[in-house]
Every structure is written in C-alpha cells, then in structure tokens.
Automatic annotation (TrEMBL):
Residues 4-183 form the Ketoreductase domain. Signal peptide: none annotated. GO terms for biological process: fatty acid elongation. Belongs to the short-chain dehydrogenases/reductases (SDR) family. One of its GO terms (molecular function) is oxidoreductase activity, acting on the CH-OH group of donors, NAD or NADP as acceptor. It comes from Thalassospira lohafexi. It holds the Pfam family adh_short_C2. The lineage of its organism: Bacteria, Pseudomonadati, Pseudomonadota, Alphaproteobacteria, Rhodospirillales. This is 3-oxoacyl-ACP reductase.
Length: 250
C-alpha cells in the first residue's frame, strides 16, 4: 500500500477528529485511536479511509496491541499524532496524587508509550511525530500544576525525540494550541476565564479545531521535511505577544 497512514490519538472528537478529517482530505488513511469506544465508533462511521481502534494510551499493553492492530490493518505508519489529553484546573494544595496521576497517565505517559511503540514502523517510513502540547506548557499559570507541567514535559520529550530519532529520518515536532472550544476546554474554562483569554489574545477569539489540525498535518507532511524539534504555538498570539496592559490599549 502506498497511501500514507496517520495514527491520531484522541480522535473521537475535538482537535483529534478535525485532524483526522484533514488527513483524509489530504489523501492519507487514518488510524483513529480513542478510549471512548462509543464516540469513536460514531465519529469514524462515515469516514472512508479511517479505521477506529479502541485503546487507552496510558496502558502499555493496550498501546502495544493497538500499534500491532494498526500495522495489521494498514501495513505502515507514516505519522503519529499524540493528541489524546485530559485537563483539570486545580490549586496546588487541592491537587491530590490521584488527580496528578490522572493527568500524567494520559498527557505524559501516553505520549511516551505510543511514540515508543511506533518507532520501528516510523523508522521504515522515515515518518513524523507530532505531539500536542499547550500554551499551558509554555507559560505558567494558576491552577495548572498538573496540566501545565504535563504539557511542559511533552514539549521537552519532543526535543528528546527529535535529538534521538533524527538519525533514522524521523522528525518530531510539538503543536501548542491556545484556547479552542472543545469539550475538554469547556469543562475547565469558566465564563471569567473565557473573557480573560479574549482580553489577552491579539486575535481576540478562540481558535477552532481545524486551525490546529492544519498545523499538525503540515508538520506531518513532506512540506515540513526539514523541520524537527520545533515547538509551534497555534494560539492567536497569546504566548509570545499578549496585548499589553489594558490601560495602554486604544
Ligand atoms: N481545547 C483546548 O483549548 C486545548 C488547548 C491546548 C491544548 N489542548 C490539547 O489538545 C488535545 C486535544 O484536546 P481537545 O480539546 O480536542 O479535547 P477533547 O476532550 O475534545 O478530546 C480529547 C479526546 O482524547 C480522548 N482521550 C482522553 N484520554 C485518553 C486516553 N487515555 N486514551 C485514549 N484516548 C483518550 C478522549 O476520549 C477524547 O475523545 C489535548 O492534548 C489537549 O490537552 C487543547
């Protein structure tokens, strides 16, 4: 089979689903991975070129079986998008160990496990890894001791992967989304948080899932063939620019 194959985790909804749809539009096949079997089944039902694989990315055995099943179904993997993620916004003192582990299991362990299991296949295709970080991994903020730290670790893991896997022709990059109105974000963004984000972002709006997917699919494509180890924010300008003191604005 010559068609390229992308493995996208957390693709039953949100940014992962939008990314899977873009890959299909761009002529790829997609292995859609999610632990929510019902949502995955309905999301993948009308997507020709995509196949669903139920898997919790934080469980090593499930990850190994999933990668084997993807290779049996498609015969190759050209890109891995580590997008599955969970969020919890809690003060440090209220972040008990179970809450900390819940975030790290998926956001950090999952990225490590899926990438590692796919390395032999990616060596064969000289493929690409795109990890999904967050502006919360680039800028410290209140209530994000677990979430922000997990995403900062993903940013560093991306650099490790680029350093170590480059000699096999495997590229690794990280996309850090700003706020996007998905189920994950709406569970933790109160109306106050939403208006504070709008106030602090030069583009003055939330992003949408497809805008993040476009950056992800670009980094997986041959158009980005000399790009590796990069951390790219798709965040409406939140991380690097900000809009300065409200009193100094017109
Ligand atoms: N939405 C935002 O504002 C925003 C901002 C920055 C970063 N992100 C990141 O983007 C990624 C996608 O987020 P989203 O907003 O689309 O979220 P979402 O909640 O809409 O989708 C996440 C998907 O991941 C799946 N998932 C969660 N844990 C899993 C696990 N252990 N194994 C397999 N599947 C699992 C869920 O079932 C769900 O389908 C996440 O990594 C998130 O941290 C989102």
């Amino acid at each position: 089979m010559t068609q390229k194959v992308a493995l996208v985790t957390g693709s039953a909804r949100g940014i992962g689903l939008a990314t899977a749809k873009l890959f299909i539009e761009q002529g790829w096949c997609v292995a859609m991975i999610d632990r929510d079997g019902d949502e995955l089944k309905s999301a993948s039902a009308d997507m020709s070129g995509a196949k669903p694989f139920v898997c919790d990315v934080s469980v090593p055995k499930q990850v190994d079986q999933m990668v084997d099943a993807v290779l049996s179904a498609f015969g190759r993997i050209d890109a891995v998008v580590n997008n599955a993620g969970v969020a919890d916004f809690l003060p440090i003192e209220e972040t008990d160990f179970a809450a900390w582990r819940r975030i790290m299991d998926t956001n950090l362990d999952g990225v490590f496990l899926v990438s590692q299991a796919a390395i032999p296949a990616l060596k064969e295709t000289k493929g690409a890894i795109v990890n999904i970080g967050s502006i919360s991994g680039l800028r410290a903020s209140t209530l994000r001791v677990a979430y922000g730290t997990s995403k900062a670790a993903v940013i560093h893991m991306t650099k490790q992967q680029a350093a170590e896997l480059g000699e096999y022709g495997i590229r690794a990059n990280c996309v850090c989304p700003g706020p996007v109105k998905t189920k994950l974000a709406m569970a933790v963004h109160s109306p106050e948080i939403i208006s504070a984000y709008l106030d602090a972002m030069p583009l003055n709006r939330y992003g949408n899932e497809t805008e993040i997917g476009e950056v992800i699919t670009f980094l997986c494509s041959d158009k980005a063939s000399f790009v590796t180890g990069q951390i790219i924010a798709a965040d409406g300008g939140f991380e690097n620019v900000g809009v300065g003191l409200p009193a100094l604005r017109s």
